[in-house]
Design a protein that fits this description.
Helix content: 25-40%
Structural class: alpha/beta
Radius of gyration: 28 Å
Strand order of the largest sheet: 11-14-17-10-18
Oligomer: single chain
Low-confidence stretches: 186-190, 503-507
Largest sheet: 5 strands, parallel
Number of helices: 21
Number of strands: 18
Shape: elongated
Mean pLDDT: 90
C-alpha cells in the first residue's frame, strides 16, 4: 500500500505545531477520505486538489485515497494544507519522485494549480527556522516570511507560484529560487504624516502627562469637555514613543499575521495604534470567537490602544481589560481551542466629565444632576480606574491660547527626552517602569524621606489603595528619569500624586 508523508504546520494562537500529512492509496471504489480533525475548509480541499492536479497535467488516482492529518487530536483549519495533500498524492501514486525530508510545504491551490497566499505563515516560518527545517511557501507570502531574514534567523526555503514548480524542485529538475532579503528591499513603505505636539494649543499639564506616559509606557485617562483636545493629544502619543526593536517588530508582525487583517509590509516595524469604536464587544477587544483570534489589545501589543468616549463602551467590555492591564497577557479559551496572546499595550482613554459634557466648563452650563453624573461616572469601575496609571482633567482651552506664536516643545524635542528616559530604564531594569513587578518597585522606586512623607499623606487624604501606591511610585520613578535624577524626591512624588487625584464623586 503506497504511503507518502509531507510536513506542514497548523496554527493555534501563536503556536504552530508540526503536522504530518500522510496519504495512502488503496484499491477499491473511488473514495477520498480525510481524517485528523479537519475543518470544513480543509475537507473541501479534495475538490481543489483534484482540479489542480488534472489541470497541471497529472492524473488523479482511481481507488481509495486516505489522507491523515497527524496528530489526529489537533484541529486543522485553512487552505494551507492543499499543497501538502497534492504532493502526498503525487508521491504515493509515483507520478513524482523525490524526498520531502524535513521540508515544510504551504499553499492554497487554485483550480489551475496556482499557489495562493495563506494567513499566518510568518508564525509557521519562525517555528520551521527554530527546528532547522526548510520551507516552501507561495510567492505571495514571500515578503511576510522574509522579515525573519532581517535578524539572525536561520530560515531556509523557497517560494513558488505553481504546483508544477514545486514538483520540479522536489525532482531536482528545476530548483526554486531561495528566500532572500531582496524581497524586503523591493517593497515600498508608505510614509505617514506625523502630527506635531506643538500644534496643540494650551494644555501644558496634559502635554506633560503625555510625556510622562510615553517615557514609562503608562496608561492614561483624560477627562474633559468636548473640543478640549483629548483626541488630539492621544493621536500625538505614538510619535513620542521610541521605534520598535527587531524582536518587538517580529512579535507584532506575528500577531498581525494570524489576525483577520493579516500581515502588512507597510506596517512592519511601526508601533501599532488601535482605535476601536465604542460599539466594540468584549470579544473584539480581548479576542475570541470560534477561531480564538487575537483581539484589539493583542493587536496593540507594544503599541497604543486608544479608547475614545470611554464611558460609551459596554461595561462588560471595559471590565475585560482589567487582567490584561496587570499581566500583559490574555488567555482565550473556547470549547475546542485555547490560545494565549501577549497584550503589553499602552492604554490611552478619553471621556467626558458628565453626560452633557459641560461639567466644570466655565463656557457652558451643565444640565446634569449630581445623581446623573454619579451614574455616568460609575460606568467605569473603581478596580479598572485603579489600574490606570494617570488620570488627569483636560479643561477647555482659553481663547487667548490661540493668539500669537507661543507654542510648547515640538514632538521631536519631547521624543528625544522620552528616548533618553527609556534608555535609562532599560539599562537599569530591562523593562519600562510601567512593567515593574512589586519586588522591583521596592528596590528601584524607593523615595527619600521627604518623598515618603508626601506619599503617606496622599494615601490618607485620598484613601488610595496599595495598588495606587505602587503606581504612584512607578510614576515618580519615570518623572525622575525624565529629569535625569537618580533619587526620587518629594517633587517627583507630588507630581505623581496629581496624576492620581481623579475623584469618584462629581466636582
Amino acid at each position: 500500500m503506497p504511503i507518502a508523508t509531507v510536513a506542514c504546520r497548523a496554527q493555534l494562537g501563536l503556536h504552530a505545531p508540526l503536522v504530518h500529512v500522510e496519504v495512502s492509496l488503496d484499491v477499491g471504489l473511488p473514495v477520498f477520505s480525510m481524517v485528523g480533525l479537519p475543518a470544513t475548509v480543509v475537507k473541501e480541499s479534495k475538490e481543489r486538489v483534484r482540479a489542480a492536479l488534472l489541470n497541471s497535467h497529472f492524473e488523479f488516482p482511481a481507488g481509495r485515497i486516505t489522507v491523515n492529518l497527524s496528530p489526529a487530536d489537533l484541529p486543522k483549519r485553512g487552505g494551507r494544507f492543499d499543497l501538502p495533500i497534492a504532493l502526498g498524492i503525487l508521491l504515493a501514486s509515483h507520478q513524482m519522485r523525490g524526498d520531502p525530508g524535513t521540508t515544510e510545504f504551504y499553499g492554497e491551490l487554485g483550480l489551475s494549480g496556482e499557489l495562493k497566499a495563506v494567513p499566518g505563515l510568518l508564525l509557521a516560518a519562525a517555528h520551521a527556522a527554530r527546528d532547522e527545517h526548510e520551507i516552501i511557501v507561495p510567492a505571495a507570502n514571500a515578503e511576510e516570511v522574509c522579515v525573519l531574514l532581517r535578524g539572525s534567523s536561520p530560515l531556509r526555503g523557497s517560494t513558488a507560484g505553481h504546483l508544477r514548480q514545486v514538483c520540479g524542485h522536489l525532482e531536482r529538475t528545476n530548483r526554486l529560487p531561495p528566500l532572500t532579503s531582496a524581497w524586503m528591499r523591493s517593497a515600498r513603505v508608505a510614509t505617514a504624516v506625523i502630527p506635531d505636539l506643538s500644534d496643540v494649543r494650551g494644555q501644558l499639564q496634559a502635554k506633560r502627562a503625555l510625556a510622562v506616559a510615553a517615557a514609562g509606557s503608562h496608561s492614561l485617562l483624560m477627562v474633559g469637555p468636548p473640543g478640549a483636545g483629548k483626541s488630539m493629544l492621544a493621536r500625538r502619543l505614538p510619535a513620542l514613543l521610541p521605534p520598535l526593536t527587531e524582536a518587538e517588530s517580529l512579535e507584532v508582525a506575528a500577531i498581525a499575521s494570524v489576525s483577520d487583517a493579516g500581515f502588512s509590509r507597510t506596517h512592519f516595524g511601526r508601533r501599532p495604534v488601535r482605535t476601536p469604536h465604542h460599539t466594540a464587544s468584549a470579544v473584539s477587544l480581548v479576542g475570541g470567537g470560534a477561531r480564538a483570534r487575537p483581539g484589539e489589545i493583542s493587536l496593540a501589543h507594544h503599541g497604543v490602544l486608544f479608547l475614545d468616549e470611554l464611558l460609551e463602551y459596554d461595561r462588560h467590555a471595559l471590565e475585560a481589560l482589567r487582567e490584561p492591564l496587570e499581566s500583559g497577557m490574555v488567555s482565550v479559551a473556547r470549547a475546542a481551542v485555547q490560545a494565549q496572546y501577549p497584550a503589553e499595550f499602552q492604554l490611552v482613554a478619553a471621556m467626558n466629565p458628565c453626560p452633557c459634557g459641560r461639567l466644570g466648563d466655565p463656557a457652558g452650563t451643565c444640565i446634569c444632576t449630581p445623581a446623573e453624573v454619579a451614574r455616568y461616572r460609575a460606568r467605569i469601575s473603581a478596580p479598572l480606574l485603579d489600574r490606570l496609571d494617570i488620570h488627569i482633567e483636560v479643561p477647555r482651552v482659553d481663547v487667548d491660547a490661540f493668539e500669537g506664536e507661543v507654542r510648547s516643545d515640538s514632538t521631536e524635542v519631547v521624543r528625544a527626552r522620552v528616548a533618553q528616559a527609556r534608555q535609562t530604564q532599560l539599562a537599569r531594569q530591562g523593562v519600562c517602569n510601567a512593567r515593574l513587578s512589586d519586588a522591583q518597585v521596592d528596590a528601584i522606586c524607593a523615595a527619600d524621606q521627604a518623598g515618603r512623607r508626601v506619599l503617606e499623606r496622599a494615601m490618607e487624604q485620598f484613601a488610595l489603595s496599595a495598588r495606587a501606591r505602587q503606581r504612584i511610585l512607578k510614576l515618580a520613578r519615570t518623572i525622575a528619569d525624565l529629569g535625569g535624577d537618580a533619587m526620587i524626591s518629594a517633587v517627583h512624588v507630588s507630581e505623581a500624586v496629581t496624576y492620581r487625584s481623579l475623584a469618584r464623586k462629581p466636582s
